[in-house]
Amino acid sequence: MTEPIQPPTGLAGPPDPIDSLVSEATVRRLAEAVARLNSDSDWLLDALIETVLAMKPVSPSELTKQQEAFLIDSGEFTSQELASTQRNVAKGSLQLGAAEAWLSLLCATLSLKQVSGFLGWGEDAVRAAVSEGRLYGVRIAGRLRLPAWQFNIGSPEKLIPRLAEVIEAVSPRWEWHSVSAFMNTPQRDLVSEGRKTPVEWLRDGGDTDELKQIIESDDWW
Hints:
Layout (H helix, E strand, L loop, with lengths): L16 H5 L2 H12 L5 H13 L11 H9 L5 H13 L1 H15 L1 E3 H8 L3 H9 L6 E3 L2 E5 L15 H8 L5 H8 L3 E5 L3 E2 L1 H6 L4 H10 L4
Antiparallel strand pairs: 1-3, 2-3, 4-5
């Protein structure tokens, strides 16, 4: 069993909680796992660190005994299921789920160089389009990334229709990861031969008015 990292002896003050929890082997395995992705490992780790630091720390269950009893009596959980859920939350299951979702969305972004090659534009032209709201870009760990949902290889422009209108509607409201999740999630109000994602809706010639209504309805929550 790998021993946790221990702080140097002879130093005043209590040990850093992080030092008492993270082993050298765990850190090494994380670095090796990221390196296997054939990505820019330092950048990816920096981006992940920024995201984790922004998360709410893991904390014990804040449910009162009365709330626990209500959940069990209502049939939402058995006592065993509730206890198991609380143990998982205490271990960090919520933070792990958020990190997994974020990494999935990050992998669906393109670099400045990739977008420049795909569109056949110079990198300065891509930057200008982002600044002007014609392309949707975000800085992650100091680098410009462009979510892939906005690109459409089947159109002459290689962009989804009415992209600038979408950018104008979502930019003041949501962070980039919320925008990406929304654009790729079927919406109950976008129905044409079944529910469609906003990306599918626009690619199939759907009107942006209905899309804007869904986006703007978020202001009421």
